[in-house]
Amino acid sequence: MCQLKADVLNRPVFVPNNSETGLMGAARITSASEPNLFLERQIEGIYYQPDLNRRRYHDERFSIFQKASLANAEISHLLATQENQ
Description:
This protein has 85 residues and is mainly alpha-helical. The protein folds into two domains: 11-50, no CATH class; 51-85. Helix content is 64%, strand content 9%. It has four helices and two strands; from the N terminus they run H-E-H-H-E-H. Strands 1-2 form a two-stranded antiparallel sheet. It is elongated and about 60 Å long.
């Protein structure tokens, strides 16, 4: 999933080796005005780098999905309105 995120967003995704990432992020935000040596240490984890070939693959599939959604929009609307009757 992390590689998929990196490919679709076309940016690196970092996953720290820490189960409390929300707390670490909050601590970093609150200490922005006052540097904390504890928080300045290097955080270990894995970087997922975007892959251009996978990006193209997902872009092509998304384009097909958009066309299919447009083609089915009228049918979906008809089905939804019939359920309410």
